[in-house]
Each structure stands twice: as C-alpha cells, then as structure tokens.
C-alpha cells in the first residue's frame, strides 16, 4: 500500500454546450488538468452531468419530470468518455452523478466510478432531498453500500444529502472503507455547509478521510441546477498527525478549480489504533453489541 496518494476534488461549473463534442472537450481538459498535477484519483460533484441537458430542446430542458428520460440518450457517450479517460490517464474517476432513468417509476441519482483497468461500478444515492423527491421525481437507490477496493486504499461514496446521516458512512467504515468521497450539488450556502458539517462529522466518527466536491456558479437555463453555491474540501479527524481542526484544505467559495491534497493512507490505521481517542474502535464495539442497528447490504467491488 502506498504511503500517500494525491487526490483532486472539483469545484465544477455547469456549462451550456452547443453539441456533445464541446462537452467532451471540457471533460477531457478537466481530467487532463488534474492528472497533469499528479492526481491519481479525481472526484467530480453531484449532478455535474446535468450540463448535458443543454443539448436538449428548450421545452425538454424546462420539463423536470422528463429530463432524466431524455438524458438517457447521452448516457452511453458519457460512460464511454469517462471510461476512456480513466484508462488513458491511468487514474480513478468518480464521475459527476447522472440521473439514470430506469423506468417511469424509477430514476436514480447514480455516481459511476471508473478505473485504469477498465473496470467500473456505481453507487446510487440513498437519501433524497425534498426537491428530488417532491419536484423532480428522483428516487432512492437500493439500500446497498459499495466498498471500492483499489491497490492504494478502500473507499465508499456518500452523495450529498447522504453524508448528513451517520449510518451509511459508519457501515462502510466498519467494512473496510478508509476514504469517503462526497459528490455534492447545493443551491444555498446553508445547504453547502450542511454537507461540509456532515463530512467533518463522518471524518471524526470513523477516523477516515472525507473528500467533498461541489458544483459552483449559475446555470439559469436549467430548472434543476440553476443556482450553485459550494466549495471543495478535504477532512480528517482532528487527531495525532493531523491539523487541530481536521481541515486538511478547502477551496474558495464558488471559484472554478480543482483543489488537491496528498493524503497519507497508512496514517489512518495508526490513528485508529493509537490515536488520542478511539472513535472508530468505540463505534465498532457498540455495533458489535447492537448488530441490528445497520441495515445496509455491503458489496465489495475490486477496481
């Protein structure tokens, strides 16, 4: 296992495109920029794929209920582009989440993960916001938590609102996850801060790294992601060898950029076994005594 790994987290704008090739050019440049800075893991935000709705007709763009169904035509190109980029640049990409239309009764907010080997998988969002549930018709995915295993570390994904709940991240950590990736899309600063507060709490509870990526800026043409306020950040538990506040680094609000951090993977095990406090261990002891508390199916995915 490597001693450290460089991760890039995006503060990502929702842009308007005239054709899908323009979208591919943007995506390719973003990936290349991060890889050129030495990043081997790239985290994009929740609903970054909504910029593909710019390729729909005006009436289709404005119809929230049918957006996912109309976006379905772009999913193969989206998928192939990120798979190609991961293999070409020998990096792991947590792609922008995509509202996947599966039937008239089911649209899920899906985060695809691509690896240099060509393997891929996904994590569906578990908890829906009021907007997703009441206005948009986006549904919770299966109550399944995936642990993605790479040669460097094991990670899990809590999409935006999911990170505001303790149990999914805790279940992942207790089953081997060392990193938690949090792709997020928030309209208000209150929403952005709820996600970041949740991320810091998950880092503390599980003595794990938590990485947040968020959408930034305006997209007035989109009824779904018209206003975006956010910033990216890296968090740890405030413990031996880490910063006093647990903040590794964070970006400037609404700046369009990648932010980066070199994270020491091996230090997590040290903190969990010999840190100033034993949050991870105490949770483990509590869960062992109360096995019925976590009701998630855990699936381990080798990348």
Compile the SSE list and pairings:
Blueprint: E1 4-13, H1 20-36, E2 41-43, H2 58-62, H3 64-71, H4 75-89, E3 92-94, E4 98-103, E5 106-114, E6 120-124, H5 130-136, E7 144-149, E8 154-157, H6 166-174, E9 179-184, H7 189-206, E10 209-218, E11 227-228, E12 233-235, E13 247-250, E14 257-264, H8 266-274, H9 279-289, E15 297-302
Polypeptide structure, described:
By secondary structure, the chain is α/β, with parallel strands linked by helices. It has one domain (4-302): Nitrilase/N-carbamoyl-D-aminoacid amidohydrolase (4-Layer Sandwich). 33% of the residues lie in helices and 28% in strands. It has 9 helices and 15 strands. Helix 1 (20-36) runs parallel beside helix 4 (75-89) and helix 6 packs parallel to helix 7 (189-206). The longest helix is centred in the middle third of the chain and has 18 residues, at 189-206. The relative contact order is 0.17.
Short characterization:
The protein is of the alpha/beta class and 303 residues long. Helix content is 33%, strand content 28%.
* SSE class: alpha/beta
Write down the CATH topology: Nitrilase/N-carbamoyl-D-aminoacid amidohydrolase
Overall average residue pLDDT? 95
Indicate how many domains the architecture comprises.
Answer: 1
Low-confidence stretches: none
As a percent range, the share of strand residues is 25-35%
Q: How many strands appear in the DSSP assignment? A: 15
CATH architecture: 4-Layer Sandwich
What sort of overall outline do the alpha carbons produce when their principal axes are compared?
Answer: globular
For the largest beta-sheet, the strand count, sense and barrel status come to: 15 strands, mixed
